Amino acid sequence: MKKKILIIVSNANSIGPNNRRTGTFLPEVAHPYSAFEKAGFQIDFASLSGDTPYLDALNLADDHENLAFLTGKGWADMQKAVKLSTADTDSYDAVFVPGGLAPMVDMPEDPLLKKVIADTYERGGVVGAVCHGPVSLLNVKLSDGSYLVKGKNIASFTDEEENNYAKADVPFFLQSALTEQGAIFHEAAPWTANSIADGNIVTGQNPASAKGVGEKIVAILENKA
Predict the structure, then answer these.
(1) pTM of whole model > 0.90?
(2) From 3.40.50.880, 3.30.310.260, 3.40.50.2300, 3.30.750.24, which CATH number describes the 4-223 domain?
(3) What is the pLDDT of residues 6-55, one digit of tens each?
């Protein structure tokens, strides 16, 4: 059977005291989407509110996979993302959360998102996220009351990267928050590719890591019966 993956995107379009414009960072959704598409997966989109999501980094549209996403089915389907509460999330083999600053606005505490991620993980589905997307893993508690990220090998946008990118805009530093909940954090040099799989959790550090996250998710799903 064709594997099914649900990409869950933020609905935020601004962040911080200066209302910095934001959205889903184009390569962080386009590059994994390309990997999922090549693998023949069914790819669906959901957002927290069901409103049309926003894209950031459109200036990177000259990249082949970014352009293919914008001009092909990807962006058209993302604009029709269903409200997460209406999605049959148990039917998906994997969920994936791309970054951009937007998830730092509406994903740190959303109870339904936390439940979907916990349920997906505990039934053996794959949970993936890249850059600021791993904020979706923050505050996720498993059925035994422990934090999902405790003792797990995790990558995300680093404090060092944030310090030179959006320190004045984000409500907290993601690396520090994940580490406080027990994540074993893996940090590479700023803006270099760094993706890591720990069981059925796949995370990546930054935009350069998005392709690797997508490929690792594909590899795990293709090895499942």
Answers:
(1) yes
(2) 3.40.50.880
(3) 999 999 999 999 999 999 999 999 999 999 999 999 999 999 999 999 99
pLDDT value of position 1: 87
The full set of domain ranges for the chain reads 4-223
Which ranges of 45-129 would DSSP assign to H, the alpha helix? Answer: 64-71, 73-78, 103-106, 111-122
**Which tens digits make up the pLDDT trace of 126-173?**
999 999 999 999 999 999 999 999 999 999 999 999 999 999 999 999
**Averaged pLDDT, 59-71:** 97
Give the β-pairing of 126-130 and 94-97.
Answer: parallel
